[in-house]
Specification:
about 0% strand, mainly alpha, 5 helices, about 90 residues, DNA polymerase, domain 1
Length: about 90
């Protein structure tokens, strides 16, 4: 299991705070419970997702649109799983 350094985790928390509450409700649980278990490539894919504009990210996380890069689908599934298993 890969554990991000506390400074890196703080930066990621900030990047996961988006303009849409729906995105916050998906990204925050994942960051707390799933991000540390990603391998290096998956962490890179997560960072790629964070580069997307809010609306595009939301559409991909809600499976309205499929990501152009198939590798992102695996991370999207993990994000959705973390949001549904929290609490």
């Amino acid at each position: 299991m890969i554990k991000p350094m506390s400074e890196d985790l703080s930066r990621l928390r900030w990047r996961c705070r988006r303009g849409m509450l729906e995105l916050d409700l998906l990204l925050q649980p994942f960051l707390e419970s799933g991000y540390g278990e990603l391998n290096e490539a998956e962490q890179g894919h997560f960072l790629q997702l964070l580069e997307l504009p809010d609306q595009e990210l939301f559409e991909q996380l809600m499976e309205i649109k499929q990501p152009e890069e198939k590798e992102l689908s695996h991370v999207i599934t993990k994000i959705r799983h973390a949001a549904t298993t929290q609490g």
